[in-house]
């Protein structure tokens, strides 16, 4: 059995000294085990409450980008602009979301994870109320885009919190619930907003998301722990103490330098193509479903989002359980050695069978107008199930592949993911108009298959690098970007 890898000294940022066992010195079949096999010792009730809190905060964040998909014409009419202007602004929100890590990770390093979490909640609430009260398209777009910068931070912080408090053997299930709440909300919120838009004003939507964020902030204040309060913390995280360190914290290379690891780069690109698939589905519903089935109100099209939403939730939970079992099976096979890539093996059936099947069935059933409303609804459920099942292993892999840099790795994943999501929102409708629904979703299915090939390469061919990445001098404790 190969010896355990020694990670770099958190004080000096040095790489392992001579004689230290790393992945490079291990046989290809035996990468070094992780340093995060033991999570913080907390009562089970407290872990459950923390999980509920971080899951709740995904709801208002999701409202931010998906709630207006069913009320685009109503917002456009209010500001006397074309409906495409609202879609363009929504794509801008996703671009702002992609850049979230470049802003909030440094802030977290400066003031701490818990404090940054609460500040982000406050910014989100104020921007939501500002959007509800906006009297011009310019002010509405500005505040909407600004709120977009906070969204992925709640996802990054939530995932790092879960990796701190849940052991790897059950971490996939916890991440599955977290991811399930995120993606299910992306289908539930359009339905809620469509009801609001039908019977009241679209401005109420932003008031509702602000109220939800306020409730989440109150719960976070009482239950989200400081990193230093978790019992598996060996050294307390340092914060910036001078202007030079503060400026160095905003260096974007702290995230981009992790792309030197092929596993991280390929996993992030795969998350990107999955996000393209997801947002292409969500952004195009009203454009293709309403004319096909002669739906006229926002509420009628909003109900259609329930099918992929249920698929999102079911796929996240089922895949989370299966990924945990896969990890345990491979660990027994290797006599106790656990590798991050093991979890990805559970994702392969979703990538190569379920997701492309659901995507193609949905696209061509709508294109050829076959199966009535039942076939598009059932195929969108299959697509949503496969999509989130494929996502699950990648989300957990991002936190595990280099645990000493997990926040920066997760942030880079969301950066890539939201960039591809913005492309999906921006091009879905024009692509459908240009080539038709069937061929548009065929392109989407092919991109997902390419993502599956990248996951297959990571899981079967790529040896995980366990030699430490040289740590930026400022991030001398914890991990690059967000304190663990």
TrEMBL record:
The keyword Calcium does not apply. PANTHER family: MAJOR FACILITATOR SUPERFAMILY, MAJOR FACILITATOR SUPERFAMILY (MFS) PROFILE DOMAIN-CONTAINING PROTEIN-RELATED. This is Transporter -like protein. Residues 1-29 are annotated as: Disordered. It comes from Emericellopsis cladophorae. SUPFAM superfamilies: MFS general substrate transporter. Residues 14-25 have a biased composition (Polar residues). One of its GO terms (molecular function) is transmembrane transporter activity. The keyword Metal-binding does not apply. Keywords: Membrane, Transmembrane, Transmembrane helix. Gene3D superfamilies: MFS general substrate transporter like domains (1.20.1250.20). Residues 50-463 form the Major facilitator superfamily (MFS) profile domain. One of its GO terms (cellular component) is plasma membrane. It is found in: Membrane. Its main location: membrane. It is a multi-pass membrane protein. The chain crosses the membrane at residues 49-71, 83-105, 117-137, 143-162, 174-196, 202-224, 263-282, 302-323, 344-364, 370-394, 415-432, 438-463.
